[in-house]
Amino acid sequence: MSFLIADAHAQAAGGAAPTGGGMSQILVLVVFVVVFYFLLIRPQQKRAKEHQKMLSELQTGNEVVTAGGILGRIVEISDGFITLEIADNVRIKVQKSQVTQLVPKGTYKSA
Length: 111
Fold this sequence. Notes:
Layout: H1 21-56, E1 63-66, E2 71-77, E3 81-87, E4 90-95, E5 99-103, H2 107-110
Antiparallel strand pairs: 1-2, 1-5, 2-3, 3-4
C-alpha cells in the first residue's frame, strides 16, 4: 500500500527561497497581456472604428439592417436618430447606432 503514497522529502536547511522564479512570473504575465491585447482588444477597436465610419457615411436613400433585424430605406437622418421606411408609407425612427449593416441597393424591394 505504500506504493500509492509518495515519500516525503525534508526541506533544505534554513528554508531557502527558490531563485529566479519572480522574473519568469512577470514574463508570463507580460506575454499574457500582449496576447490578450492582440486577440481581443485590438480587433474590437478595429470593428468599432469601422462601425463609426459606416455610421458617419450614411445618406438618405441607403438601405440598411438594424440590430433588431429590420430592413429599411433611410428617409431622414438627424444627429442621433434615423427614420426608416420599412414598407409603403410605414416609417419608424431608430437610433443611428443600431444600424449594423449597409446592404446593396435593391435589397429592400426584393425582400
